[in-house]
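User: My collaborator sent over this chain with a note saying "see what the structure looks like." That's all I know about it. Can you take a look?
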Amino acid sequence: MEYRRRVIDQTLDEVIGSLPAIAIEGAKGVGKTATATQRAADVFTLDHEGVRQTITLAPELVLQGRPPTFIDEWQMVPAVWNEVRHAVDAGAPAGRFLLAGSATPSPGARLHSGAGRIVRLVMRPMTLPERGLTTPTVSLAALLAGGGPDIAGRAELTTVDYVREIIASGFPGIRAADATARPYLLDSYVARLVDHDIAEAGGAVRRPQSLLNWLRAYAAATATTASYTSLLDAATPGDEAKPAKQTATVWRDLLQRLWVLDPLPAWLPTASHLKRLGLAPKHHLVDPALAAHLVGATADSLIRGQGPARPGDSTFLGALFESLAAQTVRVLAEANRAQVFHLRTQGGEHEIDLIVRRPDGQVVVIEVKLSSAVRPADVAHLNWLARQSPHAVIDRVVLNTEQRAYRRPDGIAVVPLGLLGL
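Assistant: Without extra context I'll predict from the sequence alone. Here is the result:
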């Protein structure tokens, strides 16, 4: 399969000539190995049993690779992390090491954080720009620069196209398969996660079906802040012998360590008069296709409006579209050294789907709407926050399924999701 350049490649282009060690982290299947291999002179593939056994006995052998040396699935022999760190301390040149990991080591692993030595980059499934569906015309970097840049462009994508992209997945290997094979590949992904990956990450699952039920409940709660107690209740209706809350917390932590859960943290500005902001993260899986698959949704069922019950008048398709937008914005934001959050007041009076924060604290605020029209209610919370924090909010954006990008007379940018790029 021909390599398709990813957003993270631009970051690697910028930093590999200045940094001795870079770790690319993310869920299995997002494309870390393909991206790092493009740049590697020597590769140590630690999920290959023979290579793993050799490096386990002599982790210092990774230091003999030609630069750039790529160490794939490094967490399977955690000792190599410290070998790389010591090499950096000893003066390793820029571009010496690339590492990739599909899980953070268990808390019991005795590893230095690598802070100041090994730079960590997160890789997620393919965004819409990376899939080559459209040519982006609206730059997140320009929005973050402030000044209300001009907004223009046209995307020949309909709501049905977005639905198909949600189901098609952003995992390169799954997306490349035909539509008939994709459900089987997603089945295999989930099965391997429960039967193999969790144990490989140092966890143990005594009740695999209970974990699967909990994961399905999490998927059904995509783009909400539902409590973990309510997720456990939804996963075990009528089950008198339901797992303890502590067990569900262990599952959550394990799945986050495997990058399968990708919760969006709440925005808590440090210098603000805003009060009563919610602390709970918004629930997202690493890929909305995985969420759809776990609850049995198909393109046809989503278009018909079927899916798990949602609060208010929202739909599960709307939640998956928001998740796809969150995934895209997070990838683009990280390439711009920005972070992404959500905002929700404790009583739910005000909610904003995405808050993109620059390092200096100024923000671009984004609402995501599965609609080709913008109603007054769609921008009310954006305008509320702009009034509350006029010095922090530098731009307001609605991401939707319209085909034309433009800026409204009130200054709000309306951007089809397929047109948003670096």
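A starting point for your reply to your collaborator: The chain has a mean pLDDT of 92.
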